[in-house]
Amino acid sequence: MSEFRGVFPYLVSPIGPSGEVSADVLARLCDDLIKAGVHGLTPLGSTGEFAYLTWSQRRRVIEVVINAAKGRVPVVAGVASTTIADAQMQAREYERLGANGILAILEAYFPIRDEGVFAYFKAIAESVSIPVVLYTNPNFQRSDLSLPVIDRLSHIPNIKYIKDASSNTGRLLSIINRVQGRMQVFSASAHIPACVMLIGGVGWMAGPACVAPRQSVELYELCHKGDWSAAMVLQRKLWNLNEAFAKYNLAACIKGGLVLQGYPVGTPLAPQEPLSPEGVEEVKRALAVIGAL
Hints:
alpha/beta; TIM Barrel
């Protein structure tokens, strides 16, 4: 696979009433996203509810997505754990199944100092031969990646990307300045993707791209061409969706939007709550503005 760049939707994890992965629904979503032009697929990101799934459910989600992709686009599989050994096990298994990259997420019950954070991500990278994307979201994580740790990790050969969801665009520029030539940066939904690409980002990894794939790809292509005026016209329309995504439960928002579009992906796993009626209306309005309904 070539370098990762462009639009990588964070996929939802549709789970049936008996706990089974709704493989047909997930495969259809993957196929439709690829036909819409996305550049890759990211199962088991934050929108994929990884924290609420069993190991067998996680593995099945990855298996379904890889089979559905059929090698047409890279699949970057989410690995998340509180222990190094378990994270390595997940990463090795996903590589064995055919994943093209790993999205590495650190779960922590107690805060972890920089050396522990560095050791966790280094161990994941050294357990596989495929590229690793670091994921950092200080809004949800008890232990974040500091700039010095990111700098150190960027020297590990297969740690090639980072998706930072801090909502601090200045931090993104600091990261880009530190890791230039070694690591590429993806925007999160907490950032304005067009602005991130203007300062050197290579794409967008986020849940909203699941419900607005064509518009997200169009935005990326406009930015890639340097047509910033046209890009910002589209970005302003898309931002309504970003705002809704930030306001409501991540999986609830995207699953609610997909249901509106005809995908029976269900509701978020308990104890999460489904999208409220007000949320449904807000997501519906945001999708209508960009022609995604």
